[in-house]
Every structure is written in structure tokens, then in C-alpha cells.
Amino acid sequence: MIYEIVDKMFVLITDLEASIELDIEDIKQAKHESLLNRNDQKHYMIEEITNLKQELNQELISKMQQGEDIDKYRDKVNSLEAELLKLYESNKRLASLVLPVQQMYKDLVEEITNANGGQIFDIKA
User: Fold this and answer.
1) What band does 79 get if pLDDT is binned at 50, 70 and 90?
2) How far is CA 115 from CA 39, 49, 56, 112, 122, in A?
3) Within 29-73, where are the H helices?
4) What average pLDDT does the structure give for the chain?
5) Alpha-carbon 66 to chain mean position
6) 118: Cβ contacts below 8 Å, ≥ 6 apart
7) Is 49 within 8 Å of 13 (Cβ atoms)?
8) How many other C-beta atoms are found inside a 10 Å radius of the C-beta of residue 5?
9) How far is it, in rounded angstroms, from Cα 51 to Cα 82?
10) How far out from the chain centre does Cα 32 lie?
């Protein structure tokens, strides 16, 4: 069961990392709409990884309580941790691109608002 959980997590992490790489490429090419198309799928993968992590922890605790030597799972769990660190680094790269773009849009909105006397839209009734 532990190996199955870890394998499912590997698949999700790999898929999520690929999605982040696509996001990075889309940001570089200013294809911002494409980012939104993947958001729901990424949120689902993140939730699944979180749920599987909890399930993995419960399984490991259960095996320990049954007196099983869980050291035999160490290599597999360590590889999973290494993949999670790679995912974290990819996410950091994505954030380093997203935050400046977000700031650029915020600055544009402020500039337009200031140019219009503090209002984005000039509504006349």
C-alpha cells in the first residue's frame, strides 16, 4: 500500500511540475489566458498530493505500530522528497515570473486610475 501511495504521488508531482513548466513558458510568451486553463487541474493535483501525503503518513504509522520495520521504505520516500523539492524549486521559478507580471498589471491599473482622477471608469448618468 505504501508503494502504491508513493507511486500515485510521483505521477501527480510529475504532472504538476510539467504544468508549472508550461506556465513558465506561457508567461514568457505572454499567453496569460493559458495559465487560467490549467489552474483547476493544478489545484486538484495539489489537493490530491496533500491527501496522499496524509494517507502515506497514516500508513507508515500503522506499519510502525504493527512492528514492521519501515526502514525498507526509506529509499522510496527519500526519492519522493527529492521530487517534492524539485517541484518546490519549479514553483519558486514560476513565482519569480508571476509576481513581476502581477505588479506590472497593478501599476498599470493605478496609472490609469490616477490619470482618470481616481476612477477607472468615467460613468455619466
Assistant:
1) very high
2) 33, 46, 55, 5, 11
3) 32-65
4) 85
5) 35
6) none
7) yes
8) 21
9) 19
10) 17
